[in-house]
Design goal:
The chain is of the alpha+beta class. Helices cover about 30% and strands about 25% of the residues. It is built from 11 helices and 19 strands. Strand 9 (about 70-75) and strand 10 (about 80-85) form a beta hairpin. The longest helix has 21 residues, at about 350-370.
Length: about 425
């Protein structure tokens, strides 16, 4: 499941998204350069192959490790978007373009938010959407909605099979895992699956908060939100912590975990992006990223823990903290918040920020592990996470180490104007 927000104002657009997926489904930041493609070229997406366009934009994506597409991302022209799973009464195709494929294709092929909307609509109408989208349940599929933004405008695009509806964002707008555009939602929404997704609870909360948001820091706080007055998640054995924006997994019916988070400030001449590149924004750190500042962050992660990828290095910290969030998080949250505030005020070079983040996560992890005593979560939550830790071969012992990222070549700009 997921939550995506946008605030469209006369001075620009703010964008934010939490990507909620299976707990061991590591996500990574992937820079792809602008490219020219030969006539007749084709592109292999997650499940199907389609014709390639002549030229694709440079993009920065946040990708689940096994999927060609992306949960969210941006391109060299400032077009930024994310998708949501939605559940409709239209037939689900066994194969087709996934919502994540549509995110990447639109970013690679568009120069404005309006272009991106039309790109997605055209692709859905021509090739359809479908195919398995889950890691633990590979056959899990859905239709998709999107928030598409650039420095001048933002749109909500909702689909049901090959059908669609579009609404321009004016002011603050939030979407979750249900159709929302009047008329389209009433006609095509699957009531039961939409209810199980708890999207109405999350959307009510995110809309309430985004209505009061003014800047990127406010959106980061929304993505970390566990509900009114709550420092830690509240768990349900049915759907885990799915009722609030910062989702924590453990449910028997649905079980999602926030595995990546993104905030963007889109203004003409002043485009800025911040991404965690890790799960659980409540325990993580938003770092400045840019399409034209690619980093070498090592090999893409998998669903097995490793000591090299930023996602899994942070995961040891995340899973340790969640055993007693108020006590263990308090050991470093204030320092984390001060660092983020400084970076928001004066963003450092991405390479320097990621290097500093890696050192901080190593230090925070060692400190938290040294004070790890017991687990205050309900027993059913403890059992759930013990199974996921075993599958990932993740042990909450030892120290954290690694090397700092370094910059690599800047991608060539495309011909969009």
């Amino acid at each position: 499941m997921c939550d995506t927000m946008a605030i469209a104002r006369s001075d620009g657009v703010l964008f934010a998204k939490n990507s909620d997926r299976d707990p061991n489904e590591a996500q990574y930041l992937d820079w792809q350069p602008a490219q020219l493609h030969p006539s007749g070229a084709r592109v292999k997406c997650t499940w199907i192959e389609i014709p390639q366009v002549r030229q694709t934009n440079a993009v920065l994506l946040s990708r689940p490790f096994w999927i060609w597409g992306a949960e969210m991302g941006t391109n060299e022209h400032g077009v930024t978007l994310g998708n949501e799973a939605v559940f409709t009464r239209k037939r689900y195709a066994k194969t087709g373009l996934t919502g994540m494929d549509l995110v990447r294709l639109a970013l690679e092929r568009s120069c404005t938010a309006a272009d991106a909307v039309q790109a997605i609509v055209g692709l859905v109408e021509e090739f359809g959407q479908g195919g398995g989208c889950g890691l633990e349940r590979r056959g899990f599929t859905y239709h998709n909605s999107f928030i598409v933004a650039d420095p001048r405008s933002a749109f909500v695009l909702e689909t049901a099979g090959r059908l669609h509806a579009v609404e321009e964002v004016r002011g603050a707008r939030s979407i979750s895992n249900g159709l929302t555009i009047p008329g389209f939602a009433e006609r095509y929404s699957d009531t039961i699956k939409t209810y199980v997704s708890a999207c109405k609870l999350r959307r009510r909360r995110t809309q309430e908060l985004v209505d009061r948001a003014d800047e990127a820091a406010d959106l980061m706080r929304i993505l970390r939100d566990h509900g009114p007055g709550r420092e830690a998640p509240e768990y349900s054995w049915i759907n885990g912590g799915l009722g609030v924006p910062c989702v924590h997994a453990c449910g028997l019916v649905t079980s999602s975990q926030t595995t990546g988070s993104w905030v963007a400030q889109l203004r003409a001449g002043a485009i800025r992006h911040w991404a965690t590149g890790t799960a659980a924004p409540c325990t993580g750190l938003f770092k400045p990223v840019a399409v034209n500042q690619p980093l070498e962050l090592g090999a893409p992660p998998t669903d097995r823990a490793d000591e090299e990828s930023p996602w899994w290095r942070h995961e040891r910290l995340h899973r340790a903290v969640m055993r007693d969030p108020a006590r263990l998080g308090a050991r470093y949250y204030r320092e984390r918040d001060e660092i983020e505030a400084a970076w928001l005020a004066d963003p450092p070079d991405s390479s320097a920020a990621f290097g500093e983040a890696q050192r901080l996560v190593s230090r925070w992890t060692e400190d938290v592990l040294a004070h790890l005593v017991g687990d205050i979560r309900p027993r059913f939550v403890q059992r759930y996470w013990a199974k996921r830790n075993a599958r990932a071969r993740l042990q909450l012992t030892g120290s954290a180490s690694g090397t700092s990222p370094s910059s690599v070549a800047t991608p060539r700009a495309s011909s969009c104007s």
